[in-house]
Specification:
heterodimer; A: mainly alpha; Formate dehydrogenase/DMSO reductase fold; 17 helices; globular; B: mainly alpha; about 90% helix; about 0% strand
Chain lengths: ~400, ~40
């Protein structure tokens, strides 16, 4: 269609010029810190891919999974759960009042999963094999839960990309392609929920192979259920937390619909998160009972477990309920941050702190500063890409040309 | 006393079933606590 292409050309050019716009010419302290992180991260990246894992990590054969798996992958996947929870609430459960939160949640989930894949590249190495889909085409490990996790993440990242595409297509003014992408929304949402259910639980199920290595208070035959249920709470909390951060950074970019729908969304999500955390707390107690592990609570690891389960599950459950009852948005936002901290703590406990718990301290894994720096580097890149997209594309507001299409 | 796997399973499963009963009752109470003010406003 040459006519249509000609009419779209100025729009694409304008969008491309907008793309290159530099709206922050001053060097603020934050920009300087970001620059330092990027420079150090790039140097460490070169070091990791040229000198190997040993040059930048403290990983050993006893501890082959470290910071990048425990934090970037485990926490990244859990905290990106806002994508499937929000799109399921809106499109599957018919809660259209949460529609304006779908785009930010999908964008966060997409970038979160992209970071997960990148962190896996750092950990596994051989990026050439991942690009060629080597593990899926040449050498499948179909008996491994990691194969299932990898396949689900691959497919879900594709699904999230397709769910995300209406945003750049609206930005570029490609109406026909955007309409096709929007028509796929329901099917993609169903696929996203199915894939998320599978791999969120499978990440926990990975640890079923190590009952003697993981502390009994964290190990359970129900660990897959723990991971899945806690991911829902993480997703809901992440949408609340991210929304409150976005209000500070992108308030000028937010449309009236988003601003009007945000307070009821926070209250609704707080109530849902409270219920989910209540259920999560109970299944954790069932896990201890089923393994008859009550006596471990009187040990130092038991005290640490109680800190996690009471301070970061039971307390947020109660605070979310109080915030929802009293319509206290400030309390809810604080509780969302507390819940996210709790989920991160839980994943680190399982993958690092309570893993190989019987070994003496000098044989335990402690991440090197370079592993931590690279994790910060990956999160910084995610935030920068999010900022780039959110300041240019219709994420928090409706594109004026497509306003009538938004339900 | 627990001597066999059968004893262990009976012990833990019994406790789990009791706990689940308590949980279901607590769940109703928690739901009422959570939605009480909404119902008052309606």
């Amino acid at each position: 269609m040459p006519t249509q292409n000609n009419s779209q050309a100025p729009r694409i050019t304008a969008a491309a010029l907008h793309f290159m716009r530099d709206d922050n010419k001053k060097f603020s302290p934050l920009a300087v810190i970001t620059g330092i992180i990027l420079v150090v991260g790039t140097i460490l990246t070169i070091l990791r891919f040229t000198q190997g894992l040993g040059a930048v990590t403290n990983l050993t054969n006893t501890h082959p999974w470290g910071m990048w798996i425990g934090f970037d992958l485990m926490c990244g996947v859990a905290l990106a759960a806002g994508g499937y929870t929000t799109s399921a609430a809106c499109y599957l459960f018919g809660m259209k009042k949460y529609h304006s939160a779908v785009r930010p949640a999908i964008l966060t989930a997409f970038l979160g999963y992209a970071t997960v894949v990148v962190s896996l590249l750092y950990d596994v190495g051989r990026p050439d094999r991942l690009i060629l889909a080597y593990p899926f085409v040449v050498q499948q490990g179909t008996t491994s839960l990691l194969f299932e996790v990898g396949l689900c993440v691959l497919l879900y990242l594709t699904v999230l990309f397709l769910e995300f595409t209406p945003i750049p297509l609206e930005w570029l003014g490609l109406r026909r392609a955007r309409n096709i992408a929007v028509k796929l929304t329901l099917a993609l949402t169903i696929l996203g929920v199915v894939l998320s259910t599978l791999h969120q639980s499978s990440l926990g199920a990975l640890f079923l192979i190590a009952p003697s290595k993981l502390h009994p208070l964290w190990y359970s035959p129900y660990i897959a259920v723990f991971f899945f249920v806690s991911s829902i709470a993480a997703g809901l909390s992440m949408v609340i937390f991210e929304g409150s951060l976005a209000h500070k950074a992108f308030h000028h970019r937010m449309g009236t619909t988003y601003l009007e729908e945000h307070p009821p969304l926070v209250l609704g999500y707080a109530k849902a998160a409270s219920l989910v955390l209540f259920g999560y707390f109970m299944v954790k107690i069932v896990g201890i009972t089923a393994g008859d592990n009550w006596h471990y609570l009187a040990t130092p690891y038991g005290v640490w477990f109680l800190v996690e389960i009471l301070g970061f599950v039971a307390l947020p459950c109660f605070l979310f309920a109080m915030g929802s009852r009293n319509k206290d948005i400030g309390l809810i936002k604080f509780t969302a941050a507390l819940t996210i901290t709790g989920i991160v703590l839980n994943r680190l406990n399982i993958s690092i702190i309570a893993f190989n718990w019987h070994l003496p301290l000098d044989e335990r894994y402690i991440p090197s500063w370079m592993e931590i720096a690279l994790s910060i580097y990956m999160v910084t890149c995610l935030i920068l890409v999010f900022r780039f997209i959110a300041t240019r594309m219709p994420v928090f507001d409706e594109h004026p040309d497509f306003k009538e299409h938004h339900e | 006393m627990i001597h066999t796997l059968q004893d262990f399973m009976l012990h833990t499963e019994s406790n789990t079933y009791i706990l689940m009963g308590v949980y279901l009752i607590c769940m109703v109470g928690f739901w009422m606590f959570l939605t009480h003010k909404d119902e008052e406003q309606d």
